[in-house]
Amino acid sequence: MSNGFFSRLVEGLAQMFGKTPEKPALEDMTPAMVDLLAFKKSPDERKRRKAFLIAEKVEGHPTSNTWRWRRWVSILVVNGLFVASYWADLQLIEGALTASRVFGFHFADLNSSLQLMLAHGHVVINLVIGVTTVLALYVLVGGRTFCSWVCPYHLLSEIAEKLHLKLAEKRLVKDHALDRRLRPILFVVFAALAFFSGYTLFETISPVGILSRAATYGTAVGLIWVLLLLSIEVLWSRRFWCRTVCPIGLTYGMAGAVAPVRILHVAEHCLHEGKCRDVCLVPHVLEATKLGFGRRTETPVGPDCTRCAMCIDVCPTGALRFDIVGLSRRPEAAPSET
Predict the structure, then answer these.
(1) Which of 38, 144, 291, 333 reaches 20 to 30 Å from 158, CA-CA?
(2) What is the per-residue pLDDT across 48-77, written as a single tens digit (0 to 9) for each?
(3) CB 266 within 8 A of CB 297
(4) Are 234 and 163 contacting, i.e. CB atoms less than 8 angstroms apart?
(5) Residues contacting residue 337 through CB under 8 Å, at least 6 positions apart
(6) What are phi and psi of 19, to 5 degrees?
(7) Which of 275, 264, 292 is nearest to 40 (CA)?
(8) Other beta carbons less than 10 A from residue 254's beta carbon
């Protein structure tokens, strides 16, 4: 593996823990990226991009919701299987998203397992087996895939976000973005509380577990807390829980940091107009889409990416797409970028 791989990995993990992405100096870019940047800054190319953006604004560009609908179906199917199996007493899919057994295989949420073992002060074998299964999956799919393809709160939060944006457009609400470094701090705080108190506080307030248990077992008391969180996201801070509080995505991001499945940004095709960052849950992972911020002509999106693919849906030129290392057919990169 090249030094470029490790530098991207370290930078991606640092950003996941709150580091603000920095604009690279020319000497930190590959020769191919320096040449591409010079071309994009040329008067003729600037005029071409400007003309395209004006035409797009006037004529409109149809935004696809293909990946959004696929994710929503995935969330409903996965969570629906838990409900159907429980109420039909099939015993094929047992438990909830925090810990389950699916066709005999144990699955355990990484953060929930950590919290429980810290609280109990010993290693639980079934949780170890479940964590191993989940880790094996995340070595392949990577990122925070759980968040956008499985988590029931993510679906509700997306709907709340749409409402927030409509209200913000009418200037009825304003987004109060919080410091991203709050999330890793809370990760440590929740872990410490579990260890010293013997009580898994996070599991009590996690909307993921609350929604999963409510749907499967009908325990609806915690839904009041979920409604409060959604109200905060609609009226005060866009994606408050997922962006700045929830440690679940942090654990999955670390677990899948080197996965072969990722979203790839191809700078050659990019207009740098920022639509992708506008829709992204974690826009810092798309800093390379800004003109002059990419170090390479092809940049894999970092481990904090949820793989929601909304950036792919809104990109008018196909500059963002899913990529599988060693399998996807990609445009040839300069030798210095491999």
Answers:
(1) 291
(2) 988 888 887 777 666 788 999 999 999 999
(3) yes
(4) yes
(5) 4, 30, 32, 33, 296, 297, 298
(6) -65, 140
(7) 292
(8) 16
